[in-house]
Write a sequence for this structure.
């Protein structure tokens, strides 16, 4: 998926008897990268904090006196990196108060800061962009003698913008254009890996030479592919 560097803003409106808060919880289906939480600021001032990332998001805690109880409003911002696969992926926020154990308060969409550029609590991008992202090939010279070194061709990639599973086809062609290997499966948005071990569809070892790999993703509104060459050597 696309790794996005994000800044999360929210403005807390505190009542006269409100004692403030000492934490923030951000829930998201995106994968927040370990060690990426940084630059927590309250009213523009950097504040020490502790963070804990889990599969559902991140919890951030700071000293209770960082939020002035007498303040009418408090502007909080924090930076982090997240791998995002879906347009509109939500980042839902809640303020926490571990001192009182009170029910957390949700962060609502709105114009917390004009600098933010958006009042949404999600990540959005141009839907005309790529379905296939972060495409990587392990190596382009495969030596399938099973010695543990360069035995397989491995494709790693992310699928974006999908709201349902799509058909993915992975094939190997010889230089005459004849298909010698084919694999088809349904895949969802996310990070994926496909592998070819040098064995043809008829069960025989592919002879030394040059070959073409092709990955085709059939989306609801468009198809996309990635093509390249590899060599088999023994």
């Amino acid at each position: 998926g696309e790794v996005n560097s994000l800044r999360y803003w929210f403005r807390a409106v505190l009542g006269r008897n409100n004692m403030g808060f000492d934490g923030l919880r951000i829930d998201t289906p995106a994968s927040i990268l370990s060690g990426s939480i940084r630059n927590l600021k309250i009213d523009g001032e950097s504040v020490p904090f502790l963070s804990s990332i889990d599969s559902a998001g991140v919890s951030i805690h700071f000293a209770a006196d960082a939020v002035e109880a007498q303040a009418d409003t408090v502007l909080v911002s924090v930076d982090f990196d997240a791998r995002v696969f879906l347009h509109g992926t939500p980042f839902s926020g809640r303020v926490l108060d571990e001192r009182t154990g009170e029910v957390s308060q949700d962060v609502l969409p709105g114009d917390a800061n004009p600098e933010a550029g958006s009042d949404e609590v999600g990540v959005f991008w141009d839907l005309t962009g790529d379905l296939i992202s972060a495409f990587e090939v392990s190596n382009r010279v495969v030596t399938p003698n099973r010695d543990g070194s360069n035995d397989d061709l491995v494709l790693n990639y992310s699928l974006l913008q999908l709201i349902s599973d799509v058909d993915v086809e992975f094939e190997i062609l010889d230089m005459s254009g004849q298909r010698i290997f084919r694999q088809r499966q349904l895949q969802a948005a996310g990070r994926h890996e496909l592998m070819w071990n040098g064995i043809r569809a008829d069960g025989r070892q592919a002879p030394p030479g040059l070959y073409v790999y092709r990955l085709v993703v059939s989306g609801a509104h468009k198809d996309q592919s990635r093509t390249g060459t590899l060599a088999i050597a023994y």
User: Anything to note?
Assistant: The chain has no helices and 20 strands. Residues 132-232 form a domain with the Immunoglobulin-like fold (CATH 2.60.40.4070). The radius of gyration is 24 Å. The chain has a mean pLDDT of 84.
